[in-house]
Write a structure and sequence with these properties.
By secondary structure, the chain is mainly alpha-helical. Helix content is 46%, strand content 8%. The strands form three sheets. Strands 1-2 form a two-stranded parallel ribbon. A two-stranded antiparallel sheet has the order 3-4. A two-stranded parallel sheet has the order 5-6. The protein is elongated, with a radius of gyration of 21 Å.
Length: 297
């Protein structure tokens, strides 16, 4: 991303959200910017080696996970992560500003991992859900036995990535009342566990007299969208915010699949201009987002 700039098709989630907010009065969205998770994906060792506590259960493991992530992000290795994340966050917030009918809130890893007791609670619950159902108190590191298999870009993500994903959903539900997730079909392995986790509440037995976390209702919903053209358009042929308008026109006109994909993505933001040429719509929307991103620190 640092070399090419952010991709215009980052808009795909917002395009679906625009359709939904226009169709469902009162619908609101919280967008989780997960770009800082790059630090998690790139380091192979377990994020926690803490044993199950006698009185505090999985909380020590959750605290260790958060501290290790923060340490990686603040390290020399994390410099690239921080720079890329800052770029993406500006564009996400600029895209969120396009919504005039309903506010769209963008939060990122910093909001989750810095002084957020509610998130630590959600992560503790998620680690418990993913862990060995018969853990040994105080003698061995928490062992994850229920995790999603998710491979992308030929890289197998860490097992500890699963409780982090589940914790996001649990925290957003408790903190913001988020009752559904809109995401790509590539995340179905995680989504299945999210629904099971919501349905189960906290499934473990009380440890050392600790009280079970309150059970959550099971109405949590998952909505999927596809990125059918993403794998069909070579990376260098995608449209980036760093491209000139002439380059955008050339790329779109040279590839009918790209033209249809990006045109469909831009259309919800021009509801009164049906039939607008896809090239003009993409350029106009891209310029609006670019201008908005410049004003975000």
């Amino acid at each position: 991303m640092l070399e090419t700039g952010e991709r215009f098709d980052l808009l795909d989630f917002f395009s679906w959200a625009k359709i939904m907010t226009d169709a469902v009065p009162g619908a609101r969205f919280v967008v989780l910017d997960a770009s800082l998770y790059w630090a998690v994906n790139a380091v192979p060792e377990p994020l926690s080696e803490k044993p199950l506590g006698k009185a505090d259960g999985f909380r020590p493991a959750a605290e260790e996970v958060v501290e290790k992530i923060k340490k990686r992000i603040s390290s020399g290795f994390g410099e690239t992560v921080r720079k890329a994340s800052a770029i993406r966050n500006r564009y996400l917030r600029a895209m969120a500003s396009l919504f005039t009918n309903q506010p769209v809130r963008v939060i990122d890893g910093n909001d989750l991992w810095n002084g957020n007791g509610g998130y630590l609670q959600a992560l503790s619950e998620s680690i418990e859900f993913c862990s060995n159902p018969s853990p040994v108190v105080g003698t061995a590191p928490v062992s994850l036995t229920r995790t999603a298999r998710y491979s992308r870009y030929n890289q197998e993500y860490q097992r500890w990535y699963t409780p982090l994903v589940l914790a996001e959903a649990r925290y957003l539900r408790s903190a913001y009342g988020v009752e559904a997730k809109l995401g790509p079909t590539s995340e179905t392995a995680f989504d299945k566990l999210i629904v099971e986790s919501m349905r189960a509440g906290c499934i473990g037995a009380p440890v050392g007299g600790a009280v079970l976390y309150p059970r959550l209702p099971s109405e949590y919903q998952i909505f999927w969208y596809t990125r059918a053209a993403e794998g069909e358009v070579p990376y260098k042929q995608l449209v980036f915010f760093t491209d000139s308008n002439d380059t955008v026109r050339r790329k779109i006109k040279a590839n009918p699949l790209l033209s249809g994909w990006l045109g469909e993505m831009a259309a919800p933001f021009f509801p009164n201009k049906k039939g607008t040429d896809s090239v003009d719509a993409v350029i106009a929307l891209r310029d609006m987002i670019e201008e908005g991103a410049k004003g975000i620190g």
